[in-house]
UniProtKB/TrEMBL annotation:
GO terms for molecular function: deoxyribose-phosphate aldolase activity. Keywords: Cytoplasm, Lyase, Nucleus, Schiff base. SMART domains: DeoC. This is Deoxyribose-phosphate aldolase.
């Protein structure tokens, strides 16, 4: 991951003056979606880049040690070895960026990766994910326990009530405390944009999260009705750009929820390249939160190599 974001003093004056031009945001998002995506070997290269930025995720009520183990093995070898060999990419160390699980499954993931002799990071959601509606002390304890179990990245959720009622100072203080509880672990802050109401609120929440020391800002939990959308991403990455201009610190971006196709991953990479530049085209500053995306990317790579589409049983499950 990139250097830590130390945060800054909360600038309420800046926050209070923010207004987002909705029409301009929607127009820009349309422009990006309308751009031509690369084809043939260039597309295959971009898809492998997307694979290296995936936080391979399982956040289900029926998660068990065995399916977390399978997820970890898939993260270590995300694309079939024979396909990578045909592209001469078998020895380039292609893995996903991390695996992402619930706090109670962190120890399982750490154990599986250690047994496979892999240094892949384990990310854990925390702070009363997905709703964030548990007492503050409980949320802090959840972060500490996930870190103690070996998580090196923590995906926290903000308290949406504070954002919706404009209590930015209280939100800043909470995120500051989460950051402290993370210790050396990197902190990604989930804004749950589907529940924030307006683009202006999304920008303000993004900025407060970064001022409080978030290393990444993330769109969604994947459990809301609306998850990662391109217009919301434009607002969030513009906030990242403004924060960089103000402080000199680069903060990462993670869209999550509903990203299922290889084609969508290419649009996301295009958006990041255009809005933030090439520095962000790496797992240090860009992640894709996804569970079913990898299967589709692997199918597209199979098609690139063989000229045929794979049946689902021909590719290992994630």
């Amino acid at each position: 991951m990139a250097a830590r974001n130390p945060g800054m003093k909360l600038d309420l004056e800046w926050i209070s003056k923010v207004r987002v031009n909705t029409q301009a945001v929607l127009k820009r998002a349309q422009q990006i979606q309308g751009q031509k995506t690369p084809k043939k070997q260039w597309q295959a290269a971009w898809l492998l880049k997307a694979v290296t930025c995936i936080d391979l995720t399982t956040l289900a009520g029926d998660d068990t040690p065995s399916n977390v183990h399978r997820l970890c093995l898939k993260a270590i070898q995300p694309v079939r070895y024979d396909l990578l060999r045909k592209m001469d990419m078998h020895d380039k160390g292609i893995t996903t960026a991390a695996v992402c699980v619930y706090p109670s499954r962190v120890a399982d993931a750490v154990k599986s990766l250690k047994a496979a002799n892999s240094s892949l990071p384990v990310a854990s959601v925390a702070t009363g994910f997905p709703a964030g509606q548990t007492p503050l002390e409980t949320r802090l304890q959840e972060v500490r326990m996930a870190v103690a179990d070996g998580a090196t990245e923590i995906d926290i959720v903000i308290n949406r009530t504070l954002a919706l009622t404009g209590q930015w100072e209280a939100m800043y203080d909470e995120i500051r405390q989460f950051r402290e509880a993370c210790g050396d672990a990197h902190m990604k802050t989930i804004l749950a944009i589907g529940e924030l109401g307006t683009f202006t609120n999304v920008y303000k929440a993004s900025m407060v999260a970064m001022m409080a020391g978030s290393d990444f800002i993330k769109t969604s939990t994947g459990k809301e009705a609306v998850n990662a959308t391109y217009p919301v991403a434009i607002v969030m990455v513009r906030a990242i750009r403004d924060y960089l201009l103000c402080t000199g610190h680069k903060v990462g971006f993670k869209p999550a929820g509903g990203i299922r196709t290889a084609q969508e991953s290419l649009v996301w990479l295009t958006l990041i390249k255009e809005e933030l530049g090439n520095d962000w085209l790496s797992p240090h500053l860009f992640r894709l939160g996804a569970s079913s995306l990898l299967a589709d990317i692997e199918r597209q790579i199979y098609h690139h190599v063989t000229g045929q589409y794979a049946a689902y049983h021909e590719l290992p499950m994630a």
